[in-house]
């Protein structure tokens, strides 16, 4: 059975690139446009094995989403990769404190993303 990955990003092109990369590697993909949308999708989604989330998004940013996501008992130990243009150390620390397991800076190489994903869910 393939693992399911939730991609949370307000950029349709980023969701598309990440989605194609992951589907090509055999993962199932669910997309959300921001943190609020992602939390809503969790209600009806199959078990999510990993989340890839942007940091800067409208409505609910990635760090706020991550904090709420980690409050859910079913997802307490689900790995999260932050995919962002933010390279600032302070932001990285904030993300790690909220529970992010990896930090990938845009623009990213697809193989770099797959490497991070396979390290976290295999």
List the helices and strands and how they pair.
Layout: E1 4-8, H1 12-24, E2 28-32, H2 35-44, E3 50-53, H3 62-71, E4 80-84, H4 89-98, E5 102-105, H5 110-120
Instruction: Give me the number of helical elements.
Output: 5
At the third CATH level, what is the topology name?
Answer: Rossmann fold
- Name given to the CATH architecture: 3-Layer(aba) Sandwich
Number of domains: 1
Poorly predicted runs: none
Give the overall shape, derived from the CA principal axes: globular
The residue fraction in helices comes out at 40-55%
Helix/strand-derived class? alpha/beta
Integer average pLDDT:
93
Q: Give helix and strand order, one letter per element, not per position.
A: EHEHEHEHEH
CATH homology superfamily name = Response regulator
CATH class group: Alpha Beta
Major beta sheet summary: 5 strands, parallel
Number of strands: 5
| Major sheet strand order | 2-1-3-4-5
Give the tags.
single chain, 122 residues, alpha/beta, Rossmann fold, five-stranded parallel β-sheet, 5 strands, 19% strand
């Amino acid at each position: 059975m393939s693992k399911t990955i939730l991609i949370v990003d307000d950029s349709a092109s980023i969701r598309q690139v990440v989605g194609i990369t992951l589907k090509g590697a055999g993962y199932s993909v669910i997309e959300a446009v921001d943190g609020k949308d992602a939390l809503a999708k969790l209600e009806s989604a199959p078990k999510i094995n990993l989340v890839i989330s942007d940091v800067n998004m409208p409505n609910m940013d990635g760090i706020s989403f991550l904090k709420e996501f980690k409050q859910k008992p079913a997802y307490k130990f689900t790995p999260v990769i932050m995919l962002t243009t933010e390279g600032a150390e302070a932001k990285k620390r904030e993300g790690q404190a909220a529970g992010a397991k990896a930090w990938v800076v845009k623009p990213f190489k697809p193989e770099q993303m797959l490497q991070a994903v396979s390290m976290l869910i295999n």
